[in-house]
Each structure stands twice: as C-alpha cells, then as structure tokens.
Amino acid sequence: MVTEEQAQTLLQILDLVRTGSAVTRPDLVRTSELGRAVIAQRLEQLIALDLVVEGDVLAVPRGRSPRGLQFNKTRGYVLAADIGAQGMFVGLSDLAGGIVERVYLPHDVGSGPDETLKVVTAEFDTILQKREDFNVQLWGIGVGIPGPVEFATGRAVSPPIMPGWSEFDIRGVLQERYGVPVWIDNDVNVMALGELRVGAAVGHRDVVVVKLSTGIGAGLISNGVLHRGAQGAAGDIGHVTVGDDPTTLCRCGNTGCLEALAGGWALSQRGAELAAGGESPFLAERAEHHRLATADIVAGAASGDRVSVVLMRESARLVGDTLARIVNFYNPSLILLGGRLMIAGDAYLATVRNIVYSRSLPLATRELVIAKVALGERAALHGAAALAIDEIFRPSYFATWAEGNRVPAVI
Ligand SMILES: [Zn+2]
C-alpha cells in the first residue's frame, strides 16, 4: 500500500531526478533533506516502477563512484489534443512533455461533439499505429477545448461557440475507447500550462496568460500551479463588466462584458458596420469576399486602415484597464498576451503595458513583466500533454497506481 504521504516523498525524489537537480544518490541526499534510508527505499520503488533507471558509473575525483540516475521519460506516453474553434492540434508526448508526434487538422468545432471526437480519435489511432514499433504504453490523455469546462467532471458547460457540447461527456467517450484516464480543460488553461512548462513562463510562479482571439479569457498560474477555482471557471475575464451600455450584448447573454467590447468577434462586427457605412475601404473590400473575422481587423491595423487601428487601440485600452485591476488584486510577476489579436500586436502590447503600469500600484508592478507568449499556437498542445502528466503524478492519484507495478488507470 502506497500512502499519500509516501507518494509525496516518492514524487519529491522523482522530481529531483526529472528536473536534473539530482543525478546521483549523493545528490539526492544533498538536495532532498530526506534521510538516506528513506531515499534508498523510495529509489528502489521508483526503479521497480521503471520510472527511474540507473545508468553508468560516473567518474568522481574521490570516494566510491555513484551510478547516474535518470528519469525514464519513455516509460509511458500521453495523447494530447488542442481543439480550437476552426482546427485542432493532435499529438503524442513522452512523460517529460516532449512532443514526439504532432498534426494539425482544420475542423469546425461547431459540427458538434460526435463529429469532432470522430476526427480526434481517428488521428489518435493513426498516431498509436504509427508508433506501434516503439512499444508505446499509453498512460493518459489531455484535451483542451474552446469553452468553459467543469474540471472535476471533464464536461463543457454552456460553451458559447460549441453548440451541442454542453454537458457532453467527452471524458467518458475517450476513457471508454482507450481505457486510460482522461483530463479536459479549457483552451486558455492549457495554453497557460504550455507556456509554464516550455514557453515564456518557465521559472515564474505567479502568471496571468491572456488569450485575445475571437473571445477573451485568461489562465492563472498561482505559486507554480494552475489555479482553476472552485468549479474551473477562474480566469474568465472576458465576462468582466467594463461598460454600462445596455446595447453591447455579449455571447453570454449579459451586457457590457469585456469580450463584447474588445474581443475579436465584437471588433469584426463593429468593423463590418463601419465598413458598410463607408468608413473603411479596406474592410469593405474584404467584406465583399467573406464575413469579416478577427484576422481582417488585425490585417487592417497592420496595413494602417484607420478604422482597424482605432478598433484595436480601443480593445487594448479596455484589456489594459481590466488587467490593471487584476494586477492590483493578484500581483503576478508575469502577464503573457497571446491569441489572434496579438499576431501583429506590438502596438497592442505597448498600449496594454502603458495602461497597466500607470494604473497599478507601484509595489505590484515593480517586478512585473508584460510580454507576448513564446509558443504561439503550439502552446496548447504542450499544455494538454502537461495537463495529463501533472494529473498522473499528482500525489493522491499517483498513490493509487504506484503500488506494485501498475500503470495509471481509469478510476
Ligand atoms: Zn459575456
């Protein structure tokens, strides 16, 4: 029986090996503050689980030469999917978060959960078949979706751009098919996790990652871990009230939400109205070919179209206002801005910076960095993989499967 307390020390040692902080037993004694006997015993357990492997004898100047310790990152693999509004990234990751397979597929999430999961599972199957020769052991699946998720149940809850998905049991479908545990989170949270593990937030402990695309949302990292709140709705800053105009109806049904004034869908709607009124030849020309989208406003601003520039500036101002309040409340060391509005967003970033620095308390902004995300659209796939890996190695769950030689299973 592995108790949760034992699991914690097992994971403490595993983490030291995983991160390279300890490469020998003497290193573990030095860095873990655990007794030699406990270290020896836990290490035996980790070696029995095949999570740590002992390598070659290392040459040292004096004394007995220790064997090198290594995290066995290919012991298990996780499948990951980052499902977006118009397309998805699907991939396979080792336990160290290294993506070994990655594919992009255009797909409209509005086609519903059955159709979408058919595409996801077909690609998962292809990846697993492709890796058959490598004896891949599947340990879990992480999925990001573009809507609010109740994390405990893995269900989408009234997602505004995903008709038919509300309360759909995504986890159940995937667990049934693959027989491994599945974790679901929203797109912004997985993007934040991706940036935390391999992107611009590496080394930071208190971070706000804002996704500025068709909609607006934020992922909060608090003390090094994702902060989801009681139900999983933390960080949904798109629906913070910023205006009192009753005519600015939001997709959520309320009025005056940040997203309804500054989100990509709101900007393209306003751009279309202004283009129809003859105020923007640039947007009018584009509107002849397709319905205006976020990308058109971004392109307009980049090419100097006055209407687009003003729309983007106003959006940045509102986002900056909202973030200034969050900085005073939450005191992050880093704010990362990503999403489609940021693709050519240096002016946008500059406006947000000015507002946040001028409206937040000096103590809160003393060390604050505001920057663009580093991974762009690749972040969420890394994050979806990290989501599953984090859960596999969470002490309470790890304790249930680490006993004997079992692997993670559906519970
Ligand atoms: Zn709203």
Q: How would you characterize this protein structure?
A:
The structure is a single chain. The protein is an alpha/beta fold and 411 residues long. It folds into three domains: 68 residues, Winged helix-like DNA-binding domain superfamily/Winged helix DNA-binding domain (Arc Repressor Mutant, subunit A); 140 residues, ATPase, nucleotide binding domain (Nucleotidyltransferase, domain 5, 2-Layer Sandwich); 171 residues, ATPase, nucleotide binding domain (Nucleotidyltransferase, domain 5), CATH 3.30.420. 42% of the residues lie in helices and 18% in strands. The protein has 15 helices and 14 strands. It has a five-stranded mixed sheet, with helices on both faces. Helix 1 packs across helix 15. The two termini are 17 Å apart. The mean pLDDT is 92. The structure holds zinc ion (ZN). Zinc ion binds next to helix 7.
Lay out the secondary structure:
Blueprint: H1 4-18, H2 25-32, H3 36-48, E1 52-57, E2 67-71, E3 77-83, E4 87-94, E5 99-106, H4 113-130, E6 138-145, E7 149-150, E8 155-156, H5 170-178, E9 182-186, H6 187-198, E10 207-212, E11 216-222, E12 225-226, H7 258-262, H8 264-276, H9 281-287, H10 294-302, H11 306-330, E13 334-338, H12 346-359, H13 362-365, E14 369-372, H14 379-392, H15 395-401
Parallel strand pairs: 3-6, 6-9, 10-13, 13-14
Antiparallel strand pairs: 1-2, 3-4, 4-5, 7-8, 10-11, 11-12
Helix pairs in contact: 1-3, 1-15, 6-14, 8-9, 8-10, 8-11, 10-11, 11-12
The structure holds zinc ion (ZN).
